[in-house]
């Protein structure tokens, strides 16, 4: 009886498909090598400040647009070593976390203090209040019958009357 030899290696087409699938999964991480210092360096700039604002205000669409325009956005780091993934954990926004991880954000990254994104203390919810209204001067109108009303304020008298 002839001896049957079995190979432990998968058929060539299956192996190629597996390789392409793994390469596609790792593609955003590979792009991190191409990111410039302006994005990944531990320093602050307007782009990073805007990213923090978008994440703090749960502006998911802005984050999606930003990583679509520049995949390095997911890997950027601010002066304290934190970046979008840290902030998304801080504000506990799972949707933004998923978007960033999908685009190559490093879950094992460490900030200057040695913390990982998932070790961030949850920030209190952002509440939006209208700014206080300026104290508008109240006006009293002197009674008259014509249309040229004179305004008298309750504020202090003009400088020349003091």
From TrEMBL:
Q: Annotated region Disordered: where?
A: 108-162
Comp. bias intervals (Acidic residues): 132-150
Q: Where is the composition biased (Basic and acidic residues)?
A: 108-119
Entries under InterPro entries matching the protein: Ankyrin_rpt, Ankyrin_rpt-contain_sf
In which domain of life is the source organism classified? Eukaryota
Tell me which positions the record assigns to the signal sequence.
1-32
Q: Where are the ANK repeats?
A: 80-112
Arranged from A to Z, the UniProt key words for this protein are: ANK repeat, Signal
Its recorded name reads: Ankyrin repeat protein
Species of provenance: Micromonas pusilla
């Amino acid at each position: 009886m002839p001896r049957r030899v079995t190979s432990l290696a998968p058929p060539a087409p299956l192996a190629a498909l597996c390789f392409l699938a793994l390469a596609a999964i790792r593609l955003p991480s590979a792009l991190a090598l191409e990111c410039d210092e302006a994005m990944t360096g531990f320093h602050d700039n307007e782009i990073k400040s805007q990213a923090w604002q978008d994440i703090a205000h749960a502006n998911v669409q802005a984050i999606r647009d930003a990583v679509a325009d520049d995949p390095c956005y997911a890997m950027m780091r601010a002066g304290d070593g934190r970046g979008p993934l840290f902030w998304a954990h801080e504000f506990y926004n799972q949707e933004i976390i998923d978007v960033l991880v999908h685009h190559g954000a490093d879950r094992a990254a460490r900030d200057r203090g040695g913390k990982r994104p998932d070790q961030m203390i949850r920030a209190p919810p952002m509440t939006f209040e209208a700014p206080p209204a300026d104290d508008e001067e109240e006006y009293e109108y002197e009674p008259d019958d014509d249309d040229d009303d004179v305004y008298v304020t309750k504020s202090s008298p003009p400088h020349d009357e003091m």
